[in-house]
Every structure is written in structure tokens, then in C-alpha cells.
Amino acid sequence: MKEFEDSLARHRRLSVAPMMDWTDRWCRLFHRALSRHTLLYTEMVTAPALRHGDPERLLDFDAAEHPVALQIGGSNPVELAHAAGLGAQWGYREINLNVGCPSDRVQSGRFGACLMAEPELVRDCLIAMREAVPDGIPVTVKSRIGIDADEGYQPLARFVEIVRQSGVMVFIVHARKAILKGLSPKENREIPPLHPEFVHRLKSEHSDLTIVMNGGLGSLDGAMDAVRGLDGAMIGRGLDGAMIGRAAYHQPYDILARADREVFADQSLGIPSREAVVQTLLPVAERLARDGQPMARLGRHMTGLFHGQPGSSNWKRYLSENAHQRGRGPDLFIQALAEVMEAQSRAAAA
């Protein structure tokens, strides 16, 4: 097997989870304007779609998004190897296998969390994927702590013991199990109890593995607290990182704007203002306008930028009501920002 080499170790201290219909290329450009170092993931792309569909449409991204990882769904080693090879050719820094999504649609294709019942198959899929990518591009796996009737720590321990035989060294673990029959994907994010102690135990028993925790992390400070070791060490004795999902999407500034300084200790980068983030994204809006694309491609991901701030409702309303209009360009965001500034001035004068 290839010798493991992972150039993304530092970036894994904080990552934004792959989220269907959300973490597309325009969302990632927005998140990158907030944080230079946070590791970003694509939406899940299925291996059959890459085998039979249009790889360019499914895989294209902007180099400005880096570091960015590709998440793949599938259960056929041949198809997954083909998909992983394409991802490497397209320039993704990591190829991740989805073994955590609980949706019925994913299960029907034999993707996602249902594969936790077949760890030997997951191992074989990952071996094929690793053989299809060059050295230096890590293949990783994202899972739950268990499924359905699984109880306690042992199902996760057994899964990892078998899957690591593939040579994969990075495990991203959503710290709650998935109920495949009877709960919706939304309920699977909320109802099964969280067990972060299982993830910490996994790291203590496999210190050579990179272990990242996902699930129930709603703030930057909370995420960093969750990965600390018992002695308070954030990196080294604790987990190797935190992956944040919906909180990073709905409260992007609160989660990501401080990350470069506080998580990655890069004092050369300041904390951008919300207004500066908008200005950074105006060239992206210009590109969309030149291509005849609606501003909603970008704007729908930015509605949470002013979360918790005076004028937040004005920002959201203006983008929601105007982003689909034909002929709009960067002026959409300039005017939305003006609406916020006016609301803040009124609030300050009241």
C-alpha cells in the first residue's frame, strides 16, 4: 500500500461538512472569502453519475476554493476507483467516501450510512480508490458511530478496525448513529443522541489515525472545545479537528471569520468585516453576470452573512426578493449592503 502522506493535516483542524444542495462551488467561494485555511468539501457526487454523466459539470471548481475536497458516494469498487481518479485529475486535494448519509434516496443506491453494515466492502472500495489516485492525495472516509440496532462503542471500533486495513488513515466521524428506517435525514441529525466520547475513545485507541469529529457542533468555540483532549490540549492530545455543518451555513461569519486567527494561528490574516466579504465577492458576481447566470447562484448562500446583526432581515429580504431578477449583477449585493447600512443607522439613532 502507498505510504500515507497528508498535506491537509493542518487544514483539518476545521472543515465545513459536505451538504447536499448547499456546498456547491458558489457556496465554497463565499466561505473561502471568510477563511483562507478552513478545509471545504463538495456536495456528495455519486460514482455512477461520474461514470455515465458529465464529469466537467459535476467536478469543475475554481482554484480559489482550495483547499477543497471531493466527496463521493457509491459502493462499487470499480466505479469508485474511476470517480476517485477523475477527482484527482481535476485537482481536488482529498477524495472522501460517504458512509454517513442516512437518506432513503442514498440508501436505495447502496450509498451512505447503510454501508456501515458492510465494513469489508467499504475496505475494498477504499483500496480501489487509493490505487486510483497519486501519492499525496489522501482518500478518507466519513461515517456515523453506528446504525439502527448498534449500541455502544464496539460497532464503531469494529468498523474502523476493518476499514483501516485499506490503508486509509483519516476518519471523519459524525458522533451519533443513523436510524435508517423510521427517521428522516433531518431527524437523524437531531434525535439519535450524540456520543462524542466514542470519538475521543477511538482517537485514544488509534493515536496513529487522524480523527475528525462532526455532529452537534454549533459554534466555533464549541467545536474547538469538543476536540480538546482531557488536559485541554486542542491539537496533539485531543482530536485532530472538527467538521461543522449547518451552523457554518446559517451563521457563516460567526463560524468562519475568526478561524484563520483562532484555529489556525495565522496572525498575518485579519478578521474580515462583513462589508469586506461582500466586496471580495463582487468579481464573482461579475463573472456570473457575464455568463448570464442569476445572482441567486451566489446570493442564496449568503443570506446568513449578517446573522444576529442589525439589518440582517433587510439583507435576507433584499437578496431573496431580487436575486432571481434577470440582468442583475454586482449591484444586487451593493444595494443589499446599502439596505443593511440604512437599517443599522436607524437602529443607532433610535
Structure notes:
- The protein has 350 residues and is of the alpha/beta class.
- The chain is built from 17 helices and 8 strands.
- It has helices spanning 25-34, 47-52, 55-59, 77-90, 104-108, 119-132, 154-163, 185-188, 196-205, 220-227, 246-250, 252-256, 259-262, 274-290, 296-299, 312-322, 331-349, and strands at residues 14-16, 39-46, 68-73, 94-99, 139-144, 170-174, 210-214, 241-244.
- Strands 1-2-3-4-5-6-7-8 form an 8-stranded parallel barrel, surrounded by 5 helices.
- α6 (119-132) packs parallel to α7 (154-163).
- The N and C termini lie far apart (67 Å).
- Residues 230-236 have low confidence and may be disordered.
Q: Which characteristics define this entry?
A:
350 residues, alpha/beta, TIM Barrel, Four Helix Bundle (Hemerythrin (Met), subunit A), eight-stranded parallel β-barrel
